[in-house]
Write a structure and sequence with these properties.
Layout lengths: L9 H17 L10 H21 L3 H27 L5 H35 L15
Length: 142
């Protein structure tokens, strides 16, 4: 990746904003949701930028792609839980729409990053084809 820090990635910055908004939202949830929907939403929200950061620092395109995919999965969890929270009337429709818009834009960025990383990985693999296991001294033929 051409950026030296994950903090420069717009998708990571969006993820951090999502965390802020989710924590603000869940602070108003009923107390009986403290260890339920509130906690689950918070963990999923933190997972989005955390996986981007971890993947970026792994040093390989393949690992970064894997962590971006995990991040995207966490975003889908958030979207699902926001629908539940909205249906349970734990939030107003304006806040739901605002968070849905942020999730949509973050999801589009994650999709674009996935495509970019996958293309880079395919390009890299075509220039450096993998040595078959039978010819690789680390994996002797069975």
């Amino acid at each position: 990746m051409s950026t030296s820090s994950y903090k420069q990635l717009r998708v990571w910055q969006n993820g951090i904003e999502l965390v802020r908004q989710i924590y603000r939202l869940t602070s108003g949830f009923p107390k009986h949701e403290l260890f339920g929907l509130s906690s689950q939403l918070q963990r999923a929200a933190v997972s989005v930028p955390a996986n981007i950061a971890e993947g970026h620092t792994r040093g390989t395109t393949k690992e970064f792609l894997r962590f971006v995919m995990i991040s995207h999965g966490s975003l889908a969890e958030i979207e699902t839980m926001l629908i539940v929270a909205n249906d349970l009337q734990y939030m107003n429709s304006q806040h739901f729409n605002q968070l849905s818009t942020l999730c949509d834009s973050t999801g589009k960025m994650l999709s674009a990053l996935r495509r970019t990383l996958a293309a880079k990985l395919r390009s890299s693999n075509s220039r450096n084809p993998e040595i078959p296991k039978s010819q690789n001294p680390q994996f002797p033929a069975s």
